[in-house]
What does this fold into?
Amino acid sequence: MSHSWGNWTAPKRDTEFKTAQGKGVKGSTCLIQVCKTTGTGCFTKSLPVTAGHTYIMKVMAKHSVPGEKVTLSLNGQVREAYQGSLSAGATAKATGEWQELTLKLDIPAAGKWSKCDSVLVKLSGTGKNCTCLFDRFEMDEKELQK
It folds into this structure.
């Protein structure tokens, strides 16, 4: 998985974000979120989008504590400025094994989403004293069907 992911965490939190070789799906390099006593935060990546297109995003996620949650979410952006009301997400209850999260986003040619030129993709897990692994992020694009 690409090393070009950033991260966000609230002030005074002790979550760590890093990469690890050999821990991903089939031994690949993956992203690791280490949630300690104040677990919070997410990996982030801004990606360009175009109005009138559909995007399907997928990521493999693995949480060390079954029953906690793993999330693939996004926020619409205009010139990299966060647009609070524009968000979407896919959340799953963790199984303790690798599982795929999928999110489909249609960006219409008109309306509030049409102004977005990028999305801020976020990968996160919930809980304390646990680890969340993320690998094989993909984003496919196609023109919206008319």
